[in-house]
Amino acid sequence: MLPSPPEPLLQLGGAGLGLQAALHLHVVMGAGVFAQIEHAAEGTPLRIKRPVADPPHPRLDQRPGAHRAGFECHHQGAVVESPVAAQAGGLLERHQFRVAEGLLIAFAAVAAPADRPPLAIEHHRRHRDLTGFAHGGGAAAQAFDPGLRRNGSGGRHRAGWLRLRRGERRAGWIPAACHRLDRGSGPITQENGAPVSHPPLPAPAHLPEAGLAAFPNPLAADPALEAFLAGASAQLCRWWASSEQRSPLPGLSVLPEVAPGREGLSAEALLADLQLVMDGAYNPCHPGALAHLDPPPLTASVVADLVVAGLNNNLLAEELAPSLTRLERSLTAWLAERLGLGPGSGGVAASGGTLSNLMALVVARHSAGLQGRSDALVFCSADAHVSIGKALAVMGLPPSALRPVAIDAEGRLDADALAAGLAAAQAAGQPVLAVVATAGTTVRGAVDPIGPIAALCRPHGIWLHVDGAIGAVYALTSDHAGRVPDLGQADSLTVNPQKLLGITKTSSLLLLREPQQLASCFGTGLPYMEPSWADAHGGECGLQGTRPAEILKLWLGLRQLGESGIAAVVDGAVQRRRQLQELLQPLDLELRGGPLHLLAFTPRGLDAGAAEDWSIRCRQALLDQRLMLSRPLYAGRHHLKAVLGNPYTGSRELEAIAALVAESLPEQLRPLARPLPG
């Protein structure tokens, strides 16, 4: 039986209007939180009738870790604070009330004893609608309303009790069952039997032939939708399972009908359209797919991608993605510290490494106070990714702002050449916006000497950004972290788990030693949103406003792999690169590689035209055997490049590549051995 409400802790009302909104909070540790919200007039001013100095229930004082409550009241932008709650065990009670444009929001966070998880409750009420969320402690939530009883499904409560009970253990925000008391049938009535008047909900739109709802049904399970999702899943699984029967590069690029018809399609027709697109898609699961940094998708990441779309949360603002915002902050902080950036480091997810690099350079310019300086310079390796030059163009800097630095014989930035360039800039009075080091160049996988580069930057306060889109994930493994040393000396770091770990696209992170610089640089305020619960909304921590919760794909994928799985993926890639390198060494090829899982090669002694002809013929011969390598133009000549991140590539494919490459060479070039260190 629901206990009687205690005296109101807080009353909100308009003087002389006879209107009142009262929040009754009844707390019993371990048993639940009870709250009642009564009707408030739109635009009603707030006033504190009686700030709470003592717990509202005597049982609070009888349990360890009991807390006292305080209030923070907002009215049309003004803030009135009452005594802040006492803190114990790192948990804090907090109550918050807002009235704006007819919306009454009451927030109550109740901290449990140190040996129990915390409970939190949030009510959102517009006019006479009440919805709620329960957070923490695995609390299950039920709605009670003494003024309403339910005899059917649908409809909403006009006011009432929201009770949080500790139930099955779950994590995150759990929607409270505020829209239904039970699953009976019939209209909603008051205790006296009179019907409750509610504006009818619009009927869900259905597609005409299959009965497939255009939107998920919020009231009941939808068998047609479940069947549609199951059909799409089965179709995708069949596509994966038949990957080896198709070439990595499809023979046809198909284009289905683009414009929507007058009437919507049935589920069967939609799946047929999907199949048409799938038939013309690149096939990364084929064992011969070795052309690019696009491995097969991690299965848990695929599922998370579906859930991301279904949740449709928006990391623009915390109230649009409360749990996922916290997940992004926590996971980026863990990764940043794990990669060596130190305690307090963190970052933000971004839609690709190009955007991560751009944001890093914008933050670097802001940190140095060089906005508006068109003479600012950025130094990077001659083999740095093209996104660095693109970033400077977007930032309004001229092409001369980019200063490529010569590389050594192993494709790494020459630290002595960098020192000379920095000295020349200083002598000319030109400010240096940043130095960009690369941990994994695009063609050969070279890793710049980050430690010596950092030693050149540090005395002059120059921002060091490391583009680790390809190689930074190696530092997550103890056996291979030495292949990308000194990442922790960077001020900012780009990481792209999509390139080796198989996190579905896109998955890129910008990590910073001081992540608060993101909000300092990009924060504009979001006047149309509630204030951030932390330092800044996600939309104020980067260039992107609206963005999907891509962090969920990374989180679930890493949880699936575990540390041993991450190490196995990285180790397998390195072993495949070593094996292919050994197979190609007897041939008279220029082998261009590094410590990672990329290997490029071209015949010795050929001019640019002959090298291009060879690369075209050899690549086609490989494709004829369903082996796909890429054909980059590097150092003035075309090469073939293998990216050995595909876990399904085995000795059979690698031996076939070596044999076909040998057949493609002139006879006099085949028997020579040219070993490559590493």
Question: Can you walk me through this structure?
Answer:
This protein is of the alpha+beta class and 678 residues long. It folds into 3 domains: 10-190, no CATH class; 225-283, no CATH class; 287-294 and 346-520 and 561-678, Aspartate Aminotransferase, domain 2 (3-Layer(aba) Sandwich), CATH 3.40.640.10. Helices cover 27% and strands 20% of the residues. The protein is built from 12 helices and 28 strands. The protein has helices at residues 223-241, 267-279, 299-311, 322-338, 353-368, 386-394, 415-428, 450-457, 516-522, 551-584, 608-624, 651-664, and strands at 10-14, 19-28, 32-37, 71-75, 78-81, 87-88, 91-92, 94-100, 103-110, 119-126, 131-135, 139-144, 148-149, 160-166, 173-175, 189-190, 346-350, 377-381, 402-405, 432-438, 463-468, 492-495, 508-512, 589-593, 598-603, 633-634, 637-638, 640-643. The strands form 7 sheets. A 7-stranded mixed sheet has the order 5-4-8-9-10-11-15, with no helix packed on it. Strands 17-23-22-21-20-18-19 form a 7-stranded mixed sheet, with helices on both faces. Helix 5 (353-368) crosses helix 6 (386-394). The longest helix is centred in the last third of the chain and has 34 residues, at 551-584. The protein is globular, with a radius of gyration of 30 Å. The chain starts with 9 loop residues before the first strand and ends in a 14-residue tail after the last helix. Mean pLDDT is 75; it is low at 1-201, 203-210 and 673-678.
